[in-house]
Each structure stands twice: as C-alpha cells, then as structure tokens.
Amino acid sequence: MLNRLLFAPVNSSSLAAYRIVFGLLSAVALIRFWYMGWIERCFITPQFFFKYYGFEWIQMWPGQGIYIHFAVLIAAAFCIAFGLLTRLMSLIFFLGFSYIELMDQSNYLNHYYLVMLLAFINVFLPLASRWSVDAKVGLVHGREWIPAWTINLVRLQVATVYFFAGLAKLGSDWLLEAQPLNIWLTAHRDMPIIGRIFEFTWAHYAMSWAGFLFDTTIVLWMLIPRTRPAAYLTIIVFHTFTYLLFPIGMFPFIMVLMALVFFPPDWPLKLIRQATPTVPRNIMFAWRPTVAMAFAVYAFLQIAIPFRHLLYPGEVLWNEEGMRFSWKVMAREKSGDVQFRVQERSGGRVWYVSGSEYLLRHQDLEMSVTPDMILQFAHFLKRKFALEGIDVAVFAETMTSYNGRMAKPLIDPNVDLTGEKESFWPKTWVLPQPDGEPHRVSFKRSAR
Amino acid sequence: MRRAIELLILASICVACSDFFPRGTVDVGNEAGKTIPISIPDKATIDPQACDYGDFPSDDARAKFLWTVTSQSLCPKVREFRYYMTLLRLATDQMCVAGEEGNAEKDLSYLWSRTIATYEYLAANPVGPLSADMRRLGMEIYAWPDFNRFAAKAEVIKAHKQGGGYSMNLTPARKGLASIELLIANPDMTLQPGPSEEFKPAEIEFNALSRVERRAARCTVLKAYLNDAALYSEELYNAWSANGGAYPRQVLARIQSGEAQVVLNELSDGLYYMEKVKDYKLGLPLGLSARCTEAKCPESVEHLRSGQGITALRANLNAFSDAILGSAARPGFVELLRGVSRDDLATLLDAKVNAIRTTLKELEAGPSLDKQVLAVDKSQCVDMMSPAPACRMFFQLKDLMAFWKSDVLAALDLQQPKSEIDGD
What we know:
The complex is a heterodimer. Chain A is built from 18 helices and 5 strands.
C-alpha cells in the first residue's frame, strides 16, 4: 500500500500541468502585487516590520532593491511555468518568496504560506520531466512516468489546507451560533440575486454547515472517481462564492487550480484528447527509504504544525497562539483597538501611542488583535524612547470583539510588556477569551 | 482675420472668467455683528441646484443613510466650503486694495474661521473625492499636520524680491490652508526666527522693510496661496456638484448595484479621522502623544495662530456625530445598529458621542485651546473623569474609537481601513 502510494509509476502530465499552473499563477500574483502598488506600501514605506520569532535577522533590501527582488521572482515564476532551468528557478523562487513572506508578519496570508510550501516542495519534484524547455533541450531527461510520491506530495499539501480550514470551524460559534457568517452575510444582503436570503438566520446556519462540511470532506470526494466531477464543480462554485463575498484576492483562483491535482495523473492528456498510455510492465520505481522517510517527516510536520495550538491553553482564534501556518482560513470575526500607555520609569510622564502613528494601516490593523505583534511593537516603543534617553514601561490597552461578543481586553493592561519576551511558551499576559454566547445580528427592514 | 480670431479668443476668456467672477453684492455678518459689504461672484453664491439630488425612497436604512449623508449632509458642506473660499479671496483682494482701512483684516479673520469650520467638517468625513487618489485633494487644500510651518516665511521674502514676477509652485506641505493661516494671522508680516531661534540675514532684511512693503509681499503670497487652494476647492465642488462629477449619484448607482456595504465601509474609513483628532489635535498639545517629549506642547495646537483650534474640533465632531447619530430626517450609524438588532450598541454609541459633545461645550466656554492646554494639570489628566475638558475629550475619544473599532465594526461587518490589501 505504502509502496504504491509513493513509488507506483504515474503519468507525468499532471505534474507538468501543475508546474505550468503554479508558475503562471505565481507570476500573475506577483505582477498584481506590483501593479497594485503594494511593493511600495508593504516593503518600502513601513518604518517598522513585524518579524517572525527566529527570523529577526532578515533585513529589507536597501533602496529600491525590493523591486529587483520582485522582478527576479517574476522571472523565476515564468521560468518555472516554461520549465526552463526548473530546479534552480524553483530554488530561487522558494528562497525569494520566503524572504518576502518572512519580512513582515502583517503581510501573512494563508495562501502566501501555501505558495511558499509548494515552492519548497517544487525544489524536490521532477517538474521538468514533461512539456518543459529543460526536457526539450536535453537539460533533463523527458519522462512519461514518475513515482507517485511526487504528485501525492502536492495532493497532501493542498488537502491539508482544506482539511484544517474545516477543522478550524469545528466549534460552537461556527456550528451552533452561525458566527461569524451571521455577521458577514447580513452585511452582504444587497448582493445581486441571492443577497435577500442573507437576511435570514437559517441561511447563515445553512452556509456555516455547508462551509464546514465542504472544507472537511471535499478532498475525500475528490479522491473518489465517481464523485470527483461533482466535487470539482462544487469547488468552483464554492470559491467563486467566497471570491464574490470576501476580499481574499488570489486565494480562490489558487485553490480552484490546485485542486486539479486530485484528478488522475493523466488528466491533462485526456483534456487535450491525447491517447493515455498504460503503464508499461518494465517501469518500476524502487523503494527508497530516504524518500519515504522525507515524505513521512514532511507529512508529519504538515499535520503537527496546525495542531500545535492544542499545546496552548485557551482558544486559538482569540489568543492567536498557534494561529499562523495552521490554515485557519476565515474562521473568526475579530476586530479591535490597541493603544499603548508609555510610562516613564523615573519621571512618571505618560504618553499614549496609537499604532497608526508609526505603522501603516494594514500593519496597525493586524497588530490590534495579535498579541505577539503587540509585544513587538511595545519593544519598538521602548527602543524609540531609549533613543531620547527615556527609560519607559509600556502597557497595552486593548479592546477586542470576538465573533460578535462585546469587546473585552485581549492583553492584561497592567503588564509591562517591555519585561516580556517572545518565545514558544504560552503568553500569560494574554487574557482569556470572553465567555458567553455571541450576539447574533438579525436584519430588520426599516419603514423609516 | 487673425486679429479678429485673437480678439474672439480673448473675449471668450473674459466671458469665461466673468462667469466665474461676476460682481454682485451680499451682506455677510461678521462675529461682531457688523455688516461687511463684500462683492461676490454670482456663481460662488450657494447654488441651490448643486446638491439637488432629490430623495431615494428605500426601506433599507443603510441605503437611505448613505444617500442622505452624501447628498444632504456632505454635499452642502462642499458647496459651502467653495463659497467661503471665494469670499476669502475677495476679502483678500479688498484688503490688499484698502490696506488697513476699515474692517478688511477683521473680515478676513471672520471668513477664515468660516472657511476652517466648513473644511474641518469635510476633513472629518473624507469620502469619495476627498479620499480618492491617496487623499490628493485634501492634501492640496490642507496638508496638516504634515506641513512646513516655515515655508510661508520663505515665500514672502521671495515675493518681495521678485516683485511682479513672483509665481508660486509649491508642494502640498508648503502651501494650502495651513500656510494661508500663517499669513492671515500676521497682519504686520513680521517674521519670527526658525527652530534655531536665530534670525537669518534675509529675515532681518525683510523685517527692516516698511510695514507697507511687508504687507504688500504678504498680499502677493496670500493671493497666490488662495488662488491655488481655490482651484482645488473648485475641483472638489465639481466632483460633488449635481452638474459635475455628481459623487452622490455615483453612490446611488453603487447602492443599486449591490455595493452598499462597500460604500458604507468607505464612509466608516473616513470617520477614522477622529483618531487624528485624538492623537494630533488633543494628545500632542497635551503632551500625551509620544511626539511631544516636553510636559506639554501647546504650540502644536491646530490653528494656533488664528485661535480656531476649538472651531476645528467642533466642526470635526459635528461631522462625526452627524454620521453617527443622524437627525430626525436622516438615519445615522446608530440606526444601522438598531437595524441589525444591536440596540445595545446603538444606545452606547449614542451616549458616548453625546458625552463628547457635552465636553465640547465646556471646552467652548473656556479660553482658546492652547490656553486651556497650558492650564491642564497633567497629574489629573488620566482618564474620562479628568476635570480639564481637553483631557477628558482625549480619553473620551480614545474610548469611543476603541468601541467603534471593536463592537461597532464587528456588528456591522465593517473592516478597518487596510489599504486594500488582500486578506484571508
């Protein structure tokens, strides 16, 4: 069974199609990022970057270097799509994309993380074995057959996104209170054609359950040949719907196209009506323990990392401990405010600092509900005042609304954050999530 | 033939200009109750057609709110701002001719306060044209607090040296209402030293000029500043006017095509100006902002020179509370909260805004904002119970914005402004 899962010969056309789609999608996403002016906004304008724990050493390119960085990435993405120097370009793309992903936590998006992981595994896949310049000019051997682990690794990666996104919704707020969809859908009641049904609570429940069942089971339906066409149609409908309702950029496109990997490995040949060869008897891939071990380790990490929040007390959707890299996609409604009370240790002077005085809006917005970013900014303020020769304590005054509950402080306002350090240990200065059921909004037509 | 064409073109230009500046006379009462005869252009008077957008019957409070707030609340303010900008230009022209005779300087001061009151209303609710293109129009008109407070000084020296050849070509931070104020509030046009507290030779030379010469330079620069600001006020007006860009009609079209939530979010984004009010207009002078490393920074009070700091606060708060509370004829955000069964939040929001309005009344009963700031006892400036109204308002705004960003936004599914970057 395991041998078959990893080393059975499969047609290489699916992996080639995946390479082309990945390269083109990445290029489009990066060009769009550039076109929208987000390079300037996310990487040049900020005077402060929120670093990932352990990656504080990553520094921004001087001057306009980030534009060159993006240009190289776009070129690498096209090279991947065309299969030109594929492995080298995959490595460059992975390193380059990871750099921009790791530069600032406030830019974190689940689909960027997905691209980063796919870029990583691309380095090890025989992406150029078909429909590539590399194979054409003889840089690599063109191959009709590749071991199954290659395509199964991509499947595993895409499957984790769906499965854990579904698991994140397994909670009473989502399933029993229809939150946060109750809030989100009510606000979209003027959407053409179907908007009217969003006024009704039953629709919020129906869509909460549908979303949960879709995410948790769609991979299963995609793996069963008989249900696969209907499942893929559902994927298209589902992601089109989320694209229309929520500002999630490239995510729906990425998922719709990446889900193609669940089709049989020869699906591109069938699509272009080429004859699909049967596996010759003489093609066998030997069991390679290193490959099997690497696959197992990678699979373990992909499952363990999203579950790491279980090691922390409290609700992950509130305290964010174990939130990132866990595919908790659109799982909660959280909005809030943070003001920093900066207190001089010797003179007793007090200042109130809003994040907006130093941060860009998207940074301030992310920070306002994210404890580790609040901690980083408190340390930034300490350093800022130290430059003026003032030793300060920094306290965070927060108010955070969670799934429609009345706002409560997220951070203990009596804790001097300059005395706290970032670590993987639970953050004792993060207050517990609010109790009680969330408020449910219900739309009332006004006769006014 | 060629001469005739030239004459025709010249005549056309004159007609076009006269259309903008035909002379009429209206009486404008000043604060002292005196009457000032000011010639004003017909087109600059309040054009009843400009905001005549009519009603939009809808049983959806959100659609009605968006329609009325843009067409009946903000549009008339844009029209009023353009009106006062025009009066300000005319009063400047008269002052430059009449010199110090009559009430020219007083008229100018009065019109300045009216201009500020109308613009600050718009600044606190900068939707559509004022928020488009990275807030370009707003920056051109009034780049506060990011403005160069010494630029006007350099300009008058330049204007004196260049005489009739003076022309102005400045970036937003060096012109606009912030610089205009520095000139209006300085009728003697004596220059003060910069941050180094030492006069530069050019400044000493300028101060040694006769009062008439200094005032002439002031007139030249003031006119240039005002003409420039008027261009942008005209652009703003055209974007809102029913005869121009008709921004409210664009809002209506978007509501009808199912974008009401997006427009509502844009309106909510604009209201974040109250953060600026809290941090810069109150926090900074009170020494509660990190940008002030002294005990207090009263010199940072907005409109310090003209003493209109409280006028600006009132206008900002009026814009905010008009959008939040609405009126008898017009729904506000509280109505929207009630519309989604969040009466509890609506009541709280109403109470918080009204508490700030009460504090504002106390503030208005006192001396100018900088004087009130100076009188504040910082040891008691700690929360919403602070005895000094300026302090109390700071903490009330802090509390209100936290409530807005958490409970209110969540209930109405509004997003905080986030520079249009993707999310998931």
